[in-house]
Amino acid sequence: MSTFGELGKLRSAGPIAPAKREPAAPPPMHDMAASATAQRIWGNQAILGMRSGPLGFMSDEESGPAPTDNDLIGQDAGPADAGPADAGPAPADAGPAPADAGPARADAGPAPADAGPAPADAGPAPADAGPAPADAGPGPADGGSAAGAPPPAAVAAPVIESKATVHAPDGTTDDRKTIGVVETINFTVGGGLVANWSANNGFAAARTALTTYSWAAPETPGTSTITATIPATGQTATLDMTVVAPKEIRMTSHDEIAFAAGTAGAGMHLTVRVLPLSVNFGWTSLLEDPGGASAVAGFFLAKQTAGTDLAHHPNLNFSRFNFNNTIQFDTAAAGGPPVNPPPAWAAGSFFWNIPNRYRASNSTGTGQIFTHTFQRFAIDAAGTVTITKQGGRVRRTP
């Protein structure tokens, strides 16, 4: 521990209070333990330790009247029988015989006359035959109706719908098509149809016979294409999701750290927020890289020359964001134990340019650098210490 005169303690420490978490969404994430904060000489800083939680798949044929007995030829043949009855008297009445012969001819006439009805009766048969062609007409008419009818209505094309499992911090709707890396989304097909699902990246790559497909975006930004195939119809639908990585870090002072009277020093706990807020980064973690001090001047240059370590020594572990895209807390502080009498102070300053990495909270990789944060220290001749970091600021006079 450096003496007060050396102003030898720089801090950026781990969590002081757990943040409330929303219920975890599939797929599950590995828990990761929080890390403690170690106090170090000027140049030490660490973010809070890891937060744990889940990462984190519709013719009546008219037969003519039957001939009656009255229609038969020879119906009048009965009177011809009278001929034999008069056979005896013929010689006596020889004269009248010719006269009688006339009636015989007359009687013969009816036969042809009776023959007439037969053709007349035959007429109905052709007349009855007429309806058959007339009845045959509807056949083609019916056939035309079947051929000319419009085809059955086409089955509506399936449409994929998406819903984020957690809300965006700025209130952007859950059906948004731009999402954060590793964010989890549920997909369905309108009408609750069962589908076979696949994605060109992310997890899970494919699922079959599901109404809901739960999927986690990949760890790198880009376009992810979700495909649904309806087994019942063979129809296919696709939906593109735009995946974005963290872009920048902003910090605000949550509270100040107390120092003993007469001590040159200042400190604060910072709320760390990752942007953009239109997506959710609750399944990602953050890590600051170590590095040396830059633009060291005045009071601090003298201390560095004398052997004081002004380098940045952050937490060694990744720290997970909450579902509101924040980490609580980062600690930024500098100071030393009081001495009596206090040494002479002088104006001086330096800063850290800190690379920041993100990765999936259950990943074991090294992560990807996406932004830099700046932390600056300054002191004046009165011992007033000012510390700023990415929007957060604290100032204190002994």
Structural class of the helix and strand makeup? alpha+beta
Tally of contiguous helical segments: 8
Quaternary status of these chains?
Answer: single chain
Question: Would you identify the regions where 5 or more consecutive residues have pLDDT less than 50?
Answer: 1-9, 13-146
Main features:
Immunoglobulin-like; seven-stranded antiparallel beta sheet; 8 helices; 20 strands; 398 residues; 15% helix; five-stranded antiparallel beta sheet
What would your notes on this structure say?
The chain contains eight helices and 20 strands. The chain has 398 residues and is an alpha+beta fold. It folds into two domains: 4-51 and 247-396, no CATH class; 160-244, Immunoglobulin-like (Sandwich). The strands form four sheets. Strands 13, 14, 15, 17, 18, 19 and 20 form a seven-stranded antiparallel β-sheet that branches. A five-stranded antiparallel β-sheet has the order 2-1-16-12-11, with no helix packed on it. It starts with 8 loop residues before the first strand and ends with a strand.
